[in-house]
């Protein structure tokens, strides 16, 4: 279980996220929606540790992560994909995934290979990385430099990186941002595939309501940093607070 308790952050006199308490269970994809400036990405940043909370806490499986670094939260099971790709552009596709796989290994293997295990470890890491690339239909691009990939393939590779880390919680911040109409379905197909693993928690920030309607099991709505709605997609989308706060229209006016 992932849980936020009264999570709050202030920037000067501005409260960007205001006492948001919410729990997320395995086997559920929760979409986080709201107008621009509602606090969605900031909420993600608080959970993953990119920024420190002014007050409140983030819990995962009964453990308080609030004082832990981003790296420690990743090792605890939080996996984050950003609006902008977060890759190693001068390394190959395979090398990017192999580094992520290596990061999941215990002890000294995470930081480097020793002389006795270098060949077996290298082979095992490469095989695991190649399996992940096959899962995302990028095996044929394994030797391509990331900098040379089209934007859509870079976004796809970032999902593959998360898969290599095998987190308990997948966090996608507008995963189709900047992608063409033809590219976006590839990312959505990958998220659909991840949903089949009911041991995982998936959080999705997304502006495209057709995507939200199709993928989400639950929607929470942020407005001016506060949690204003939480429930099943059809109910939340039809509510007055979403029509006014997110869509900018009143049901009465319609």
Protein described:
There is one protein chain. This protein has 254 residues and is α/β, with parallel strands linked by helices. The protein has a domain at 2-86 and 167-245: 3-Layer(aba) Sandwich (Rossmann fold). It is 36% helix and 24% strand. The chain contains 9 helices and 10 strands. It has helices spanning 40-48, 70-76, 93-103, 118-135, 151-165, 184-195, 209-215, 233-238, 240-245, and strands spanning 2-11, 14-24, 28-33, 55-60, 63-64, 78-81, 169-173, 201-205, 218-223, 226-231. The strands form 2 sheets. The chain has a 6-stranded mixed β-sheet, with helices on both faces. A hairpin with a 2-residue loop joins β1 and β2. It is globular, with a radius of gyration of 19 Å. The model is unreliable at 113-119 (pLDDT under 50).
Give a short synopsis of this structure.
This protein is an alpha/beta fold. The protein has nine helices and ten strands. 36% of the residues lie in helices and 24% in strands.
């Amino acid at each position: 279980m992932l849980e936020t308790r009264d999570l709050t952050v202030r920037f000067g006199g501005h409260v960007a996220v205001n006492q948001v308490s919410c729990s997320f269970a395995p086997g559920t994809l929760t979409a986080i929606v709201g107008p621009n400036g509602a606090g969605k990405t900031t909420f993600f940043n608080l959970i993953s540790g990119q920024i420190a909370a002014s007050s409140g806490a983030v819990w995962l499986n009964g453990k308080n992560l609030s004082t832990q670094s981003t790296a420690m939260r990743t090792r605890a099971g939080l996996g984050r994909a950003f609006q902008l790709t977060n890759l190693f552009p001068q390394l190959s596709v395979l090398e990017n995934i192999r580094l992520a796989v290596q990061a999941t290994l215990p002890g000294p293997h995470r930081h480097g290979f020793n002389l006795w295990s270098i060949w077996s470890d290298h082979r095992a890491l490469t095989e695991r990385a190649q399996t992940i690339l096959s899962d995302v239909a990028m095996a044929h691009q394994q030797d391509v430099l990331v900098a040379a990939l089209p934007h859509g393939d870079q976004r796809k590779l970032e999902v593959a990186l998360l898969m290599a880390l095998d987190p308990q919680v997948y966090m996608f911040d507008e995963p189709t941002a900047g992608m063409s109409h033809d590219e976006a379905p590839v990312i959505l197909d990958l998220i659909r595939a991840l949903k089949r693993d009911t041991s995982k928690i998936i959080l999705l920030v997304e502006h495209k309501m057709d995507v939200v309607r199709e993928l989400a099991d639950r929607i929470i709505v942020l407005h001016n940093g506060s949690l204003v709605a939480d429930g099943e997609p059809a109910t939340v989308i039809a509510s007055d607070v979403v029509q006014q706060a997110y869509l900018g229209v009143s049901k009465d006016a319609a």
